[in-house]
Amino acid sequence: MSRLEVERLSVSFGGVRAVRDLSFSVAEGEILGLIGPNGAGKTTVFNLVTGFVRPASGAIRLDGRPLVGLKPHAVARHGLARTFQIVKPFPRLSVRENVTLAAFLRHPARRDAEAHADAVLERVGLAHRVTVAAGQLTLLDQKRLEVARALATGPRILLLDEPMGGLTPAEVGLASDLVAGIRDGGVTIVLVEHVMKAIMRISDRVLVMNQGEKIAEGPPSRVVEEPAVLAAYFGKRRVA
Ligand SMILES: Nc1ncnc2c1ncn2[C@@H]1O[C@H](COP(=O)(O)OP(=O)(O)O)[C@@H](O)[C@H]1O
Ligand SMILES: [Mg+2]
């Protein structure tokens, strides 16, 4: 069954059609890679699905339940979480406090929220950093914190916006393992990422966007060889 369904979604900003007539679905337990050149509309898709931006038209359903018109906190309560391309922790608060704030969504009592935060921090490999101010973390640990904050809201589906940007190849390996582990723990994932090695390794399926539209969809190894995808990335045109 589809965990997330997006049907004929469109939105424009001024004259720019950031997302055009986009349809896709994500199966329960799947990792869907969402790729495309800069400005393709990937982050806008996340903003639409999470309720930060309202679509001009189209439908979004999480486990069959319509999401369009809901505010971000209501979408989160339904079980959908996201991370941001630019990480957004509270830099002066500790790692544990940052994650506890997110855990309050499902654990109103402070003790429960903190216990849940600690469990999530263990899961992402930050158990040894809980008292450090978020602003003091290395980039890899900031990315882990961003994932922890999203996980602490108890999602059934997690949207990750370039979680590997700026990481070294070794760190990309660790981050890929983390994402695959989260999926194995039962969370469906949509992964926007420019690091192709990671996309190829852990995505079950890839959707390619360009100028707001879907231009290809399928298994990672096949999609990256499609002429439309090569053209979008490298400006090549194949004469049919
Ligand atoms: N809030 C906004 N206001 C105006 N234009 C926007 C806004 N968000 C995105 N855009 C535009 O929409 C297009 C898609 O952007 P984005 O979704 O960020 O692409 P990607 O994440 O694939 O790089 C770009 O042309 C971008 O400038
Ligand atoms: Mg983006």
CATH class of the largest domain: Alpha Beta
What is the N-to-C succession of helices and strands?
A: EEEHEEHEHHHEHEHEEHH
- Helix percent reads 25-40%
Oligomer: single chain
In CATH, the topology of the largest domain is named Rossmann fold
- Terminal residue distance: 36 Å
Number of domains: 2
What is the number of helices?
A: 9
Give the distinct bound molecules: adenosine-5'-diphosphate, magnesium ion
> What's the rounded overall pLDDT mean?
95
Proportion in β-strands: 25-35%
Beta-strand segment tally:
10
Q: Report the structural category.
A: alpha/beta
**Sheet having the most strands:** 6 strands, mixed
Radius of gyration: 18 Å
CATH homologous superfamily designation of the largest domain:
P-loop containing nucleotide triphosphate hydrolases
Molecular structure report:
By secondary structure, the protein is an alpha/beta fold. The chain has two domains: 1-79 and 157-240, P-loop containing nucleotide triphosphate hydrolases (Rossmann fold, 3-Layer(aba) Sandwich); 89-154. It is built from nine helices and ten strands. The protein has helices at residues 42-49, 72-77, 95-103, 110-123, 139-151, 169-184, 196-202, 220-223, 227-234, and strands at residues 2-13, 16-27, 31-35, 57-62, 65-66, 80-82, 157-161, 188-192, 205-210, 213-218. The strands form two sheets. A six-stranded mixed beta sheet has the order 6-7-8-3-9-10, sandwiched between helices. A hairpin with a 2-residue loop joins strand 1 and strand 2 (16-27). The radius of gyration is 18 Å and the shape is globular. Adenosine-5'-diphosphate binds at residues 13, 16, 18, 36, 38-44.
